[in-house]
Amino acid sequence: MKTTKSNETVNPSNAGNSLSSLIYNPTFRSVVFQVLTVAVIGYFLYIIVNNAVTNLNDRGISTGFGFLDREAGFGISLALIEYDETYSFGRTFFVGLLNTALVSILGIILATIIGFIVGIARLSSNWIVSRLAAVFIEIVRNVPPLLQILFWYFAVLQALPSARQSLSLGEAVFLNIRGLYFPKPVFESGSWMIGIAAIIAVALSIAVYVWAKKKQALTGQQTPVGRITLGLCIGLPVIAYLLAGMPVSADYPALKGFNFQGGITILPELFALLIALGIFTAAFIAEIVRSGIEAVSHGQTEAAMALGISQSKTLKLVVIPQAMRIIVPPLTSEYLNLTKNSSLAMAIGYPDLVSVFAGTTLNQTGQAIEIIFMTMGVYLGLSLLTSWLMNIYNNKVALVER
């Protein structure tokens, strides 16, 4: 019995065809091109960083983040956390970060309020109101934000009187060229009850809001949630304040020498930056609100009016909720722009992150690479956080398809 062994031969043309098909495969080529792109960018960044590190070493400047533990040796005019010259450069980073966050948050709130008011006024049937809103928008949004900051700081606030000739509201609030001064609350023993009452008031307000929404969905009846929330948030802390024996006093500002001492001070730099960025961003938000409202079908308004719903309630309950689906995405971009525009604070000396950390700290340490990367990372993080929060809200107001 003979066994026949067949010899298998490889056809070279088959190997060439498989290689050719692999090369012309879109998925394979996209992966290869992406890998090459990442490699080229990585090599380019490596060359830049390596050259920068070499230049710093040649000048006797060490690299790394050890400088954050060294004593800063300079003061900061506004600090939301405890700080003096003996603290480290790492502390200056957090002071600048909080000051930037303060301007961004307050600016977003101010710009949103003004923007919605002006945007609705732009659509008013009153010719004067509509024209005034249009003039406001066209003037403000076509003037660079830096010039507006300088205008508010030098042309408006620097024209205020000196400390001795301060504008006063009673004996508690004073306004002068050095800032706005008002009483500072001093919490004494037992004031914790007020904090607990405030937390309970917020929790009850949320519960009332959820209950009112369910009630409206089932019965169509509305509940005055705003008035109930206002009553809870004011009434409960006041009751706790009285029951605890009024444990909160006030530290009033007083003129001592050439300046006021005590109380809370709002620096003119903070006020100018906040007003300028808030108004500048509000002009763009107003146009976003106007376009969002006009995108809602006019038939919705006519149907609401036919049911006897007042014009204010029609705007609040019918038009605005539908317009928010259009307003929110571009509104997010304006919030991001306001946060990034806060870096213009250096022009008037407001101690934000760029001024304190990427300015004074960089000049004293020379750690340019580390400081610039940390500063860029902060603005990137703030932008991503804002986008994430706005995306959550956008998902809630988005139209749900069934």
UniProtKB/TrEMBL annotation:
Belongs to the binding-protein-dependent transport system permease family. HisMQ subfamily. This is Amino acid ABC transporter permease. It comes from the Bacteria. It holds the Pfam family BPD_transp_1. Residues 97-390 form the ABC transmembrane type-1 domain. It is a multi-pass membrane protein. GO terms for cellular component: ATP-binding cassette (ABC) transporter complex. SUPFAM superfamilies: MetI-like (SSF161098). CDD domains: TM_PBP2. InterPro entries: AA_ABC_transptr_permease_3TM, ArtM/GltK/GlnP/TcyL/YhdX-like, MetI-like, MetI-like_sf. GO terms for molecular function: transmembrane transporter activity. GO terms for biological process: amino acid transport. Signal peptide: none annotated. Keywords: Amino-acid transport, Cell membrane, Membrane, Transmembrane, Transmembrane helix, Transport. It is found in: Cell inner membrane; Cell membrane. The chain crosses the membrane at residues 31-49, 93-120, 132-155, 192-212, 224-244, 264-286, 371-393.
